[in-house]
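Lay summary. Proteins are chains of building blocks that fold into shapes, and those shapes determine what they do. In this project we predict the shape from the chain. Here is one chain we studied, written as its sequence of building blocks.
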Amino acid sequence: MKRLIRDIGPYRLMPRARRSPFESLARAVAYQQLHEKAAESILRRFVALCPARRFPRPDDLLAMDEQAIRSAGFSQAKVAALRDLAAKTLDGTVPTGAKVRTLDDEAIIERLITVRGVGRWTVEMLLIFQLGRPDVLPVDDFGVRNGFRIAYGRRTMPTPKAVRRYGERWKPYRTAAAWYLWRAANRAKKP
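And here is the predicted shape, written in a compact code that computers can read:
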């Protein structure tokens, strides 16, 4: 890790703290299993469905015609996930931005994985990129595992369990370690 930090330079993760948990999770649902450009295009069309706002609110989403959401590019499963996310935001299962900041990481994960289409990885992305939590290591993330393989000269892809076990030495800065592992994976893609 020391060599990786030296080669890549300073840690520069800037959380997007102004987004609500609803918006962060809705965006994460859009990105699931899609290329970045495709997800951005879908999100642009989705946001355009509610032109008076920067991003639709939960009640806006529930009032939208399902076919309109589908026309933006969301699959049937993602529409169901977005509607469940909106309903669970309105009933308080998905906490407000102020409330989520008072909860510990595991409490946030437990609450949010009850939302359809939201798993541990999705919540970990919220913890890292919205809340800026310093000690999150998303061991199920392909980029983190591939970055670990590259940085540590492994021939085969490590298991999530192996990365989790090794990552114990990076506490309480596992988010920074994940960031550097992502950089290692991205750097390896470049010719």
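What the prediction tells us: The radius of gyration is 18 Å.
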